[in-house]
Write a structure and sequence with these properties.
By secondary structure, the chain is an alpha+beta fold. The protein has 3 domains: about 10-90, GIY-YIG endonuclease, CATH 3.40.1440; about 100-205, no CATH class; about 255-354, archaeoglobus fulgidus dsm 4304 fold. It contains 13 helices and 12 strands. It has helices spanning about 35-45, 50-60, 70-85, 130-140, 155-160, 165-170, 180-185, 185-200, 205-220, 225-245, 295-310, 325-335, 350-354, and strands spanning about 15-20, 25-35, 60-65, 90-95, 100-105, 110-115, 125, 255-260, 265-275, 280-290, 315-320, 340-345. The strands form 3 sheets. Strands 4-10-9-8-11-12 form a 6-stranded mixed beta sheet. Helix 4 runs antiparallel to helix 10 and helix 9 runs antiparallel to helix 10 (about 225-245). The longest helix is centred in the middle third of the chain and has 19 residues, at about 225-245.
């Protein structure tokens, strides 16, 4: 090892993060610890794993930052890794660019569309989905219930200049916000359609289904059969959209399911986002195992990465094996969620099958 060992008495016996740097001052590894003194001592106390030994050979100095607590140490480590991109820390990468169903809520007249890549401000995302065609099938059904536009801004402006809405307005698939003077669309009424679609996509589906059933029956009783038929078609379309989201749990629950497959060189994670018992999206990551981590440590590392990037944290997270520092992770996730979070390993039943 080329790093000179610091005097144990100089290292705080406190939580924090530490950095190994090479001869040019570049960070080659960042880690966290409940006790910096004990964790750093382990690099000099016993034979090291070949990957760890390679890191210490590349490093020439070590430094540390004391944190106010273990949760702060966890967040500090993440920020240091994101800032320095150390070559001996594992890096998670998407196994492909998954598409999302997006609502451009920041626009005056929001639209629904398929989006990939980095997330943008003023856009609400749903998914990710496995395939773009799955989103288009879902949108085909939902625009029959919620007449939200799906056209590009260029086409929207073209119809506005022409003073005439497109065919989608004529067949009831769009409220026609491009020509409000003709269609009667207002910002308030149109925003109600957008909000309703967003709630439906987020899993709040029962109010929509009940409303359509009530309107269909009321129209039928008043012998307004054409109107009743329209509500019937909308109800059918809403149910068809729900069929695109596989029901995997009953009774309905909100949770994330984290699957793992691994070998000595790589690991692959697949996460299913289940809301109200239905799979609303999934996403995969692949990681090269450049860092010495056992199965529980690898899962803990992935959960940190996943929920540092995601704003939404469910009350329950199912994993293939108990993560290292589970209590710490649950405390941190509870703080992000604003309520208790449980990480669990399912042993039987539907959750184990999933």
């Amino acid at each position: 090892m080329s790093v000179v060992r610091p005097a144990p008495s100089s290292i705080p016996d406190a939580p924090g993060a530490y950095l190994f740097r090479d001869g040019d001052g570049r960070v080659v590894y960042a880690g966290k610890a409940r006790s910096l003194r004990k964790r750093l001592a382990s690099y000099w106390g016993k034979p090291l794993h070949p990957r760890t030994a390679a890191m210490t050979e590349a490093a020439e100095s070590v430094e540390w930052i004391v944190a106010s607590g273990e949760v702060d140490a966890l967040m500090l480590e993440y920020n240091l890794i994101q800032r320095h991109r150390p070559r001996f820390n594992i890096r998670y990468r998407d196994d492909k660019s998954y598409p999302y169903l997006a609502l451009t809520v920041g626009e005056k007249w929001p639209r629904a569309q398929v989006l990939r890549g980095a997330k943008r401000k003023g856009v609400r995302y749903f998914g990710p989905y496995g395939h773009a065609w799955a989103i288009r099938d879902t949108l085909d059904a939902l625009t029959r219930v919620f007449p939200v536009r799906t056209c590009s801004n260029a086409f929207f402006d073209q119809r506005a200049r022409a003073g005439r809405p497109c065919l989608y307005y004529d067949i009831g698939r769009c409220a026609g916000p491009c020509v409000p003077a003709t269609t009667g669309a207002t910002e308030e009424s149109y925003r109600e359609h957008v909000d309703a679609m967003a709630e439906f996509l987020a899993g709040t589906t029962r109010p929509v289904l009940r409303r359509l059933e009530t309107q269909m029956r009321a129209s039928s009783e008043q012998e307004e059969f054409e109107q009743a038929a329209r509500f019937r078609d909308q109800l059918f379309a809403a149910r068809r959209a729900l069929e695109k989201q596989e029901m995997v749990l009953s009774p309905p629950q909100d949770l994330d399911v984290v699957g793992l497959a691994e070998d000595e060189l790589e690991a692959a994670f697949q996460v299913f986002f289940v809301r109200r018992g239905r799979v609303l999206g999934r996403k995969g990551w692949v990681v090269d195992r450049v860092e010495e981590l056992d199965r529980s440590q690898l899962i803990a590392s992935f959960l940190e990465q996943l929920y540092m990037e995601r704003k939404e944290v469910p009350a329950r997270v199912l994993v293939a094996a108990a993560p290292a520092d589970q209590d710490l992770l649950e405390t941190w996730l509870a703080g992000r969620r604003g309520g208790p979070v449980r990480i669990a390993v399912p042993e039987r039943g539907a959750k184990r099958k999933l």
